[in-house]
Amino acid sequence: MSFLPDLGAFTMGMWSVGLGAIGAAVTGIVLANTDLFLSKPEKATLEFLEEIELKTLGSEKRTFKAGELWKENGAVIMAVRRPG
């Protein structure tokens, strides 16, 4: 006769929780550091870039189409889409 409770079920439960936590951590690290499940970016066409409205930041507020930047001279364009 033993007065100690049977810890078999408790031990099995702790192993399950521990392995689940390790699996969640590994999955989180993989998803945070890779682009396996992200959609691939699309390349912007020249027609799409020409129609974008740009606004100046200085004291003189001006709005113009991006196509005006390279009508007479060449231009290097970097398009960045911010969420929101």
From TrEMBL:
The chain crosses the membrane at residues 12-33. It comes from the Eukaryota. Keywords: Membrane, Transmembrane, Transmembrane helix. This is F213A protein. It comes from Loxia curvirostra.
